[in-house]
Amino acid sequence: MTTVFRAVSILLGSVAFAALGSPEALSDESLPGDPVAGRVFAERECSDCHDISREGGDYPLNTAPSFLDVATQRSTTGLSLRVFLRSTHRDMPDLILTEREQDDVIAYILSLRSR
Ligand code: HEC
Question: 31 and 25 in contact (C-beta within 8 Å)?
Fold first, then answer.
């Protein structure tokens, strides 16, 4: 009985851990996303309002910064983008992105830095 209980609590513990995400997933050093998939996703979901191109440019919606501008802001990190995408916004719709979509779009935005 004790062994079963232990096994169950270890299992529950790791489920909770997985749901929270490992600390590495939040740091810039280990970006899990795929920037190519992120670009495709951004094209579909974000480009009505944001210029998502590598070159930057006009803002389709003039209050929404281009992804290049977002990427080159000093305050932008993988973590800041994740926090932004998970929070509610005043002027941007509260899009619900899966973990994977967040990772990919964040990887794409940060990839605009290294040109
Ligand atoms: C309907 C228009 C609209 C869509 C669609 C949209 N955004 Fe935005 N977004 C905005 C506006 C407006 C702002 C600026 C105001 C704000 O920060 O809330 C913004 C701000 C942002 C910022 C913050 C930039 C900063 O100041 O650091 C990020 C990051 C961002 N958007 C990412 C995304 C991503 C990723 C998507 C697609 C999944 C997306 N947006 C889709 C309108 C939009």
Answer: no
Longest dimension (CA), the chain: 65
Q: Which of 82, 86, 92 to mutate to test the pocket of ligand 1 (most atoms within 8 A of CB)?
A: 92
Judge if pTM exceeds 0.70. Answer: yes
Answer yes or no: is the C-beta of 2 below 6 A from any ligand 1 atom: no
Per-residue pLDDT of the chain (115 residues; tens, 9 = 90+): 555 545 545 444 444 444 444 444 444 446 789 999 999 999 999 999 999 999 887 777 778 999 999 999 999 999 999 999 998 887 788 888 999 999 999 999 999 996 5
Domain that holds residue 81: 23-111
Domain count, the chain: 1
